Amino acid sequence: MVRAQRYDLVVVGMGSGGMVAAEFAASLPLRVAVVERDRVGGECLWTGCVPSKTLLASAKVAHTVRHADRWGVGAGESSVDTAAVWARIRAVQDEIAATDDSPRRFEALGIEVVRGEAALRDPHTVAVGDRLLSTRFILVCTGSQPSAPPIAGLAETGFLTNETVFALERAPSSLLMIGGGPIAIELAQAMVRLGVATTVLEKLPGILAREEPELVAVLRRLLGEEGVALHTGVDIERVTVERGAVEGATKVVHGVEAGVPRRWGAEEILVAAGRSPNVSGLGLDALGVETTSRGVVVDDRMRTTVASVYAAGDVAGRYLFTHSAGHEAVRAVRDMFFPGRGTVSDLVPWCTFTDPELAHVGITADEAGQRHGDAVEVHRLALSHSDRARADGHAEGCIMVVTARGTIVGAHILAPAAGELIHELALAVREGLALSGLASLIHVYPTLATSVGQLGAEAAFAGAGRWASLVRAGRIWDRLRRH
Predict the structure, then answer these.
(1) Is 356-465 a CATH 3.10.310.10 domain?
(2) How far, in Å, CA of 342 to CA of 337, rounded?
(3) Are 270 and 175 in contact (CB under 8 A)?
(4) Could you report the per-residue pLDDT of 395-412, keeping only the tens digit for each?
(5) CATH topology for 2-144+276-337?
(6) What is the DSSP string of 23-47?
(7) What would the pLDDT profile of 71-87 be if each residue is shown by its tens digit?
(8) Other CB atoms within 10 A of residue 197 CB
């Protein structure tokens, strides 16, 4: 073993959390090394956010062309070459990998990029091959991987995940999705728009179980109208392969829906039914770092059960989002090297990037009712009342704001660009604002955000109405003075 120079921080994993943590630490400045066993950029760049959103963009163009007559433009069946779509995905990834996520950019910042498998030898040592990296602190940012349910025949039949679907040369001709969470629903809509017959099989009674049910119901209807076949409450029993003389092999899922035996067939199966933290081979258990099936156990400062070892992102099992990973990683570095505490926020907004998008911050109406009882009010404004949504031809959806004792505790948006709209409401939740307080901010017209201002104005008008008797009394007093 070769012992290297001592570092202030060694980051294990150069995905979303690891890159941000390393760049922040290097700016302080600290001596930083990052260990990466695969490609810089991690799941987000290579198998997650970037390829999926690139796919969604192509699918949206195809859908718009197909339905252009809604905007007074000649419509026609778009010719989709999924090989070209997949080539575009790789081109976007390569561009990011060569610029913002390039190892050379991080090395220019003074960060040492170490290639290989990392293992924690003791609270201040990381082994990479024959090198030992001595360090004051260790930050584990190894992410997560898709997990597969224990379905008979699934492994033998073979299946895709988000880690393999973007490595294809083109889309399959038909697809079965196992799972009804954000990954499955986003990809299902994209595939259908690109001409791939797609069926979603979800074990739970509904899709997108963490979202506001009222808005999910609207989204489910819209997806069905586009051709996504959604089946919920499905108990999958087994998977088989049937070989036809003409069409080749078909993968068949056998299960029960509403008490009735069913079978669904497609060229390929994509499993999007949960994720598992990447903790194997790191030596965490031997070191005394506590882990569970959700990931590394951390406190609100991202500290593990070993004082010098921190964890952030998917591997810590809090919120499995790129933006949450970056926040957690920065707060962890802040806690290591700054006075005071680098506590992380539990208020994490997110968005499912269907079309329209479904964004979420805070708690749902049902959750608010359980916590606050009769003090809860739900304020709604349908996009059918938004001038901008009607002008754009996308008036399906709604903005919902949940208040408890007048304070905003949650917000949910089904709308184009809902992921952009949610941040104003996330700030309102964080600051404990009343809904009427949003009326004091002048919103640009015509925008979808105008609807947020309208909701605030309605709350302000309702509050003003409680003072109507004083206004009337003032008018009477004015008359008496004049006479």
Answers:
(1) no
(2) 9
(3) yes
(4) 999 999 999 999 999 999
(5) FAD/NAD(P)-binding domain (3.50.50)
(6) HHHHTTT--EEEEESS-TTHHHHHT
(7) 999 888 778 999 999 99
(8) 16
